[in-house]
Structure formats: structure tokens, C-alpha cells
Amino acid sequence: MPRAVILLRGGLDSTTTAVIARSQGYELYALSIDYGQRHRIELRYAEQFARTLGVQAFKTLRIDLRAIGGSALTDDIAVPKERPLATMSEGIPVTYVPARNTILLSLALGYAETMEAFDLFIGANALDYSGYPDCRPEYLEAFQRMANLATQAAIEGRGHYRIHAPLLQWTKADIIREGVRLGIDYADTLSCYDPDEQGRACGRCDACQLRIKGFAEAGIPDPTKYQP
Amino acid sequence: MPRAVILLRGGLDSTTTAVIARSQGYELYALSIDYGQRHRIELRYAEQFARTLGVQAFKTLRIDLRAIGGSALTDDIAVPKERPLATMSEGIPVTYVPARNTILLSLALGYAETMEAFDLFIGANALDYSGYPDCRPEYLEAFQRMANLATQAAIEGRGHYRIHAPLLQWTKADIIREGVRLGIDYADTLSCYDPDEQGRACGRCDACQLRIKGFAEAGIPDPTKYQP
Questions:
Q1: To the nearest 10°, the Cα dihedral for B217, B218, B219, B221?
Q2: Which run of H or E residues covers position B6?
Q3: ipTM of the complex model
Q4: Is A99 exposed, middle or buried (0-12, 13-18, 19+ CB in 10 A)?
Q5: Which DSSP letter does residue B120 get?
Q6: Is B226 within a domain?
Q7: DSSP string, A3-35
Q8: In the predicted model, is pLDDT for residue A194 greater than 90?
Q9: Would the CA dihedral through A204, A207, A213, A214 be positive or negative?
Q10: Mutate which of A7, A114, A161, A163 to disrupt the B interface (most B C-beta within 10 Å)?
Q11: Average pLDDT, chain A
């Protein structure tokens, strides 16, 4: 079985991506990055999901991106709530983390090189996060090109790195339908930017709203645990 | 003054790069990455040098790359000593860290985006480290291209990222001559892969040997503090 590194967070997108990678025949090496998120509970979901899925290895890497600042997910800016869905895709959200996917993919690349894996999976999604520059195909292609110049394994011809973002053009409803078809219980995942201590979703942040809409559009009952 | 982010380690190359960036009129934001090196003393040198130079800000970011493994600098593989200079450039050294420059530049990019800096300086040097794939011009160009697709600041047209590696084609002697001309006291720097507790260099690892040779070729007395 070929090896793949999967960036796993514990939300809808990365868990579905992991299950897709598995369905394509990859042996999975999951990497979760704790980048100083306010809700580390996301990482507990990621680890539990990785165990349930039966990955080959699960690694957590801590990096305190608060040191370099710049986002509602890493600073103490309030997470916006109950924003109209129509305005979410306007401009770049305050939850944007500077160079986030570049940092995450770089770490995944380092892990992949160590493990002699050449396939990297990321749950990037361009439709629901149209404001994020690092969720676009041209960005991912540029990263892939760079990766194949960056590493000993590629230079020595032992393989060619490929960045897989299977959800890139999917709606949340598409993602949920495919995940359910592949057997995911989305009650085991967390998308919320502002969960409570018990890991229950707020139901009002951008991520929750997009997720709720996704389940509605997919015509699938939403199993998410919400705060009362 | 335009702002620049400089990846500062405390060795010969990054300190010289910092002084070159300063001489080109940049206001400097220094970023030191503690990636689980065995000798954190390197970071003390970096911070002290940054203070002496008078940078605008000095940030340290911890990331434990030992979690993803793969190198003498992060694992417990012995640092090679007294390797013949002629063999150093053969193949890729065991001190190679997977995707290191990609990870470091990604973090610098995140910091740069937060600070609205568009110039990133790195002390990459292709001659003395010919075995490192991520010290080659084609790699750095690919990274720069990717960076300009990755970030909000670039997408919104607020600037264009440039990766500067002024030492890329220089010999160690070139670097030392230019650094001395710009006023660096290299006694304040540390290149050694295996220093002692007092921060004194071993004199026998690859980095020490290249540095010793560089001072000899530059015809400049070597002020480095060596272990007795």
C-alpha cells in the first residue's frame, strides 16, 4: 500500500478527506497541528477519529502561531457569530491565519519525507472558503511544484510529491454525502470555531452555519452535538 | 523604511544576511525557530546578536520537529566529526532536516504577512551546502512564486513577496569578508553543530571545519571560541 500523509483536524473536511484517501488504497500517516488554537478540543476529535479509522500513525505537532499573530483563531479577537451566509464569502474572514496552509503543508512535507510518503492529503475547500487564498488550485499546484524542488527524496528520484485536495471544488453537501457513503459518523467530528468544554458546537459561527446548511442541503439529519 | 523578516539562527550565514539586509535599508523583524535542536544555545546567540544589531522585533517560535523525525540535528544520531572536507559536498548530509527551509520560510511568511513585510531574508548558501536541495536558486524561486499565491496580502495587491538569499553563491570566505566589512564580530556567532554548555564550538563537525577554512581563506583571524 502506498503511504500518504493526511493533515487531520477533526472537522468535516479533513475527516472526509482521510476517509477518501483510505478508500483510494493509501496507508495513512495522520498529522495534527496544534497551532495554538483556542479550542484544543479539536485535536481530541482528530485523535479519536484517527483511532477509529485505524491509521498507521498519528502525530501531533505543537507550534505556537500566536507568536507570529494575526487571526481570530490564534489571537483574542472574538469569533464572529450569526454572520449572514451571503456575506461570508466576501473578502477574507477574520479567522484567516497568515500562511496557514503553507505552514501546515510544509510540516506535512517534512513528515512525508521522513516516512517516504509522496502523497499529501489536505481538506482544503475552495467553495465554502472562497476568501482564503491558500485554498485555490493555483496555490496548491505552486506548493506541489516547490515541494518537488525542496526535498532530498524528490531530488534523488525516489518519488514525486503530489498534493491531494479532493474536496477543493465540493460543496459542504457534496462532502457530507460522500462521507456518509464512506461510513463516517459526523457526530465524531467537530467543525465549530467556538465549542464548549464538552466539545459541543456553538451553532452560530461561520463553520457551524456552513455545516448546518450542508446537512440540510444533503438531506441528511445533522448528528452534531450542539450547546443547549 | 521597508520591513523585512530575517530568519536568524546565530551562525555565520544568518547573522551576515541580517547585516546585509540592514545595510540595504530594511527595518528588521527577526524570527528564530527553535525546532528541537540539541543545542538551544544557538538561539541565545541569535537573540544576543539581534539585540546588538538593534532589530525592530525578535521573535522565537518553538516547533518540535523531533515529532516528525529524520535528522542528526533533531534525532539522536551522532553529529559526524572530522569528515574530510572534500567528501562533505557528496550527497546529502545526515544533518539534513526534512523540508527544513520550506518549514522555516513558511513560518517567516506567516510572520511577514502579519507585519506587512514583503521581503524575507534567509542565509541559505548553495556552495558550502551543495547537498541540500532547499538551498538552490530554483527551489527559492518556486517558494517565492508559491508565496505570492498563498497570502491575503499578495492577493489583495498590497505587495509582492521576495525571498532574498544574498549568500546563495558565496564561499564562506566571501561571507566572512563581507561580514567583517559591515562590522560583524564573529565571536558573537556560533556555527557549531555540537557546542558545549558554554557555547564553545567543537572545531571538528562539518560546520566548524567549513568555518575554520573560511577564515583561513579570507585571511582573517578566527575569533571563534573553541572547546579546549
A1: -110
A2: strand B3-7
A3: 0.89
A4: buried
A5: E
A6: no
A7: EEEEE--SSHHHHHHHHHHHHTTPEEEEEEEE-
A8: no
A9: negative
A10: A114
A11: 88
Say if A94 is an interface residue toward chain B (CB within 8 Å). no
Give the CATH number, domain containing residue B174.
Answer: 3.40.50.620
| pLDDT band for position A128 (cuts 50, 70, 90) | low
Distance CA A70, CA B7 (A): 19
Does the residue B11 lie in any domain?
yes
Q: Tell me, what's the pLDDT at A37? A: 64
Domain count, chain B: 1
Residue A35 C-alpha, separation from nearest chain B C-alpha, in angstroms: 10
Q: What's the confidence (pLDDT) of residue B153?
A: 83
> What percentage of chain A exceeds 90 in pLDDT?
61
Q: Coil, strand or helix: which one is A44?
A: helix
**Of chain B residues 109-148, which have a CB less than 8 A from chain A?**
109-111, 113-114, 133-134, 136, 138-139, 142-143, 145-147
Residue A201 lies in a domain: no
Query: Tell me: the pLDDT tens digits for B51-101?
Result: 999 999 999 998 888 778 765 555 555 677 777 776 665 555 556 678 889
Distance of alpha carbon A111 from alpha carbon A102, whole angstroms: 14
Contact list, B97 vs chain A (CB under 8 Å): 110
- DSSP state letters, B45-100: HHHHHHHHHT-SEEEEEEB-GGGT--STTTSSPPPPBS--HHHHTSS--TT--TTH
* pLDDT, position A39: 63
Cα(B58)–Cα(B47) distance, integer angstroms: 7
Give the number of residues written for chain A: 228
Query: What is the pLDDT at residue A84?
Result: 75
Give the per-residue pLDDT at A98.
83
CA–CA distance, B13 with B5 (Å, rounded to integer): 15
Residue of chain A minimizing CA distance to B60: A67
Q: Tell me the three cell numbers of residue A205.
A: 459561527
CA dist., res. A129 & res. A89, Å (int):
7
What distance in Å separates residue B23's CA from the closest CA in chain A? 25
Q: Is residue B225 in some structural domain?
A: no
Q: Check pLDDT > 80 for residue A76.
A: no
| Domain with B136 in it | 3-218
Q: Which of B88, B95, B79, B101 is nearest to B14 (CA)?
A: B101
